Amino acid sequence: MTVISAPTNATIARVTDRIRKRSESRRAEYLARMYEAVANGPARAHLACGNQAHAYAAMGAQKPLLAEGRVPNIGIVTAYNDMLSAHQPFETFPARIKAALQGVGATAQVAGGVPAMCDGVTQGQTGMELSLFSRDVIALAAGVALSHNCFDAALYLGVCDKIVPGLVIAAATFGHIPAVFVPAGPMTSGLPNDEKAKVRNQYAAGEIGRDKLMEAEMASYHGPGTCTFYGTANSNQMLMEIMGLHLPGASFINPNTPLRDALTEQAARRAAEITALGNDFRPTGEILDERAFVNGIVGLMATGGSTNLVLHLPAMARAAGIVLDIEDFHDISAVVPLMAKVYPNGLADVNHFHAAGGMQFLIRELLRAGLLNADAKTVAGDGLAAYVTEPKLIDGHLTWVDGPEESLNDKILRPAVTAFQPQGGLRQLSGNLGRGVIKISAVAPEYHVIEAPVRVFADQEEVKEAFKRDEFTSDTVVVVRFQGPQANGMPELHSLTPVLSVLLGRGLKVALVTDGRMSGASGKVPAAIHVSPEAAAGGPIARLRDGDIVRLDAEKGELTCLAPGFAERAPVTADLSKNEHGIGRELFAAFRRNVGAATEGAAVVV
């Protein structure tokens, strides 16, 4: 295995050091708690007999091994349900994991399950207002699962949007034990994503009926596994690999294949190997340091990943005593080239990305360019060298071989020196409207700067109604406010994408400004999102009026209202009572009251 790693890029080194210094006191307190927990060890050897009897009652022949406490016991935290295609394959994983561990003299128990909701189902629906908060619920549920303190390591079974970030928050909180994340893989390719998007736009424009729309959607989302576009779910999988929480090459192997099964079994065995009972102890708290989080941001920029991770990464980091700021994303984006073109940033899906060289080629190239912290600790070993290898089944045995040194399709994946763009796809925005971010990796250059009158809306349905009435006839900045975490849980506004795309297709310059989120699949429409402070907190976005001129400049990082006297205006308020009830919203009132700002991860529990 030949890995050429250049000296660390000056900006990557500077940002890593800045994060380290910014986090110094918080990180020190975190590590002190972790090492104290390590010293105490799992409690099962110290449990009273009655406690142990409850813990092992259903474990049959493995009861003596558990009672003695001399072999690793691995806790499984699973997001299995069969409504989410990405999580349905997890149904069979616990049995496979237990069998693999039995073969090496270890044990496993399903510690608990966590909820897993699908943004694809709730998109544009009331349930989307619970979506972001589900991340914190997942962290809490995983915390309950591990609170029995009977485990030497944990295996986390989860894939999609809020599930992985919630599980990482839990893994960091229980950072005194190792954690290995176990993916299920993407579904096989169906109807190409660009064709699906074309049909959606045709439906939005009234050119086709619902029957044709349904036909296209079902042909796209057609089987078990993660959706194949490069949204938040697949950005999560990239992130877990480049941050060293997956086995090398595990992210994008399809479900229900021999290689996927072999990787799941090896993840279980590796979890047992890295417990405190062995000679290669790798507690998660040590892996999730500033180097790992910088590497995650680098991967996000190099692949044009989901803007949702700009919310999730700071929350994940806080759980490990690390403090991230959106300036870190901005500065890293300025030096990391966009090396991948995966839908919505291109025509390919993640299966095509994987076939073109995938994570192995990407990581190798980033190491060659000095754009990663090459010495970061991982579940596979010290440093990222193992992550340029790819898993193969050779004569029935799982083996890692050298990954590709050249892209197998330069329309999808390119070397750093000949990348699609010299910079990543994310920019920080700031000005008298507050702070936000914009993803421009799929936005045409002629839309990087938009200066136009605003139309102000209180929700996305109002925008759709105005579109149906043909009210958008000139360049417009569409403002959708009171969509932040305090207002209604910060739902994604992805259902606006077809509408705004149609307006772009009519030759109008259109942009979106919102204190809400866009989907991880957002693409061609320039969108200033996560604007903070949010309108419900009296942020400047609440001062905007119809007709104000707003300038969104992604090149200079500006988000400014040009109206005279703007700063002296009183912010408007809104009646948010309709957000308080229905489809479970009443259960989340405490979350809305206590949630943090979007710039800090919009979190409740960290």
From TrEMBL:
Q: What cofactors does the UniProt entry give for this protein?
A: [4Fe-4S] cluster
Q: What name does this protein carry?
A: Phosphogluconate dehydratase
Q: How is the cofactor bound?
A: Binds 1 [4Fe-4S] cluster.
| Cellular compartments per GO CC | cytosol
What does the record give as the function of this protein? Answer: Catalyzes the dehydration of 6-phospho-D-gluconate to 2-dehydro-3-deoxy-6-phospho-D-gluconate.
Q: Name the species this protein comes from.
A: Paenirhodobacter populi
Please name the pathway.
Answer: Carbohydrate metabolism; Entner-Doudoroff pathway
Domain named Dihydroxy-acid/6-phosphogluconate dehydratase N-terminal is located at 72-385
Kindly give the PANTHER family that the UniProt entry links to this protein: D-XYLONATE DEHYDRATASE, PHOSPHOGLUCONATE DEHYDRATASE
Provide the residue positions that the database annotates as binding [4Fe-4S] cluster. 160, 227
Among Pfam families, the record links this protein to: ILV_EDD_C, ILVD_EDD_N
Q: Which InterPro entries match?
A: 6-phosphgluc_deHydtase, Dihydro-acid_dehy_C, DiOHA_6PGluconate_deHydtase_CS, ILV_EDD_C, ILV_EDD_N, IlvD/EDD_N
> Which enzyme type, at the first EC level?
lyase
EC number(s) on record?
A: 4.2.1.12
Q: Dihydroxy-acid/6-phosphogluconate dehydratase C-terminal domain spans which residues?
A: 411-602
Q: Which NCBIfam families match?
A: edd
